[in-house]
Write a structure and sequence with these properties.
The chain is an alpha+beta fold. It has helices at 23-29, 54-67, 71-83, 85-106, 110-124, 135-143; strands at 2-8, 11-16, 38-40, 43-45. It is 56% helix and 13% strand.
């Protein structure tokens, strides 16, 4: 079921409180916490009904742009994402950088920015993404 249609930067994304079409494959590939959201084209699958902040929405918009809305392209993107750690890192770095910039745009406090950066770098360095970087490598890469 659709939670709502969110729009930012001209992108209309539908939030659906269900699992994405390839959830079993995702679950079999990564260590999940149960609080993840997943982009599939212009849909954000949010089975645990997490709050989608503006900066997280910006992150998911990046994945929408990477995948497009063509079903074949979306499936190919996910197939590669699940098996290719370097591709996954490239896709996530792009999205995490946008997320960080979106946060910093509205939160000018350097301490808040630093805490946020540490939090999203920790997420990028976690088992959820396959432990492809260390937290310090993630911080440096996100700030580029």
């Amino acid at each position: 079921m659709s939670e709502s249609g969110l729009k930012s930067n001209g992108v209309k994304m539908e939030v659906i409180n269900e699992y994405p079409p390839i959830y079993t494959e995702i679950k079999n590939t990564f260590t999940l916490t149960g609080r993840e959201i997943f982009t599939w084209g212009n849909k954000i699958y949010n089975p645990s009904q997490c709050v989608i902040t503006p900066e997280l929405f910006a992150h998911e918009e990046v994945h929408h742009g990477q995948q497009t809305e063509d079903e074949t392209t979306i499936r190919a993107w996910w197939a590669r994402y699940l098996v290719d750690a370097e591709f996954r890192l490239q896709m996530e770095l792009e999205a995490h950088r946008v997320e960080y910039r979106a946060f910093c745009k509205v939160n000018k406090d350097r301490n808040l920015q630093s805490r946020f950066l540490n939090a999203i770098a920790g997420r990028l360095a976690s088992p959820m993404y396959g432990n492809v970087v260390t937290p310090n490598e993630a911080i440096r890469a996100i700030k580029k």
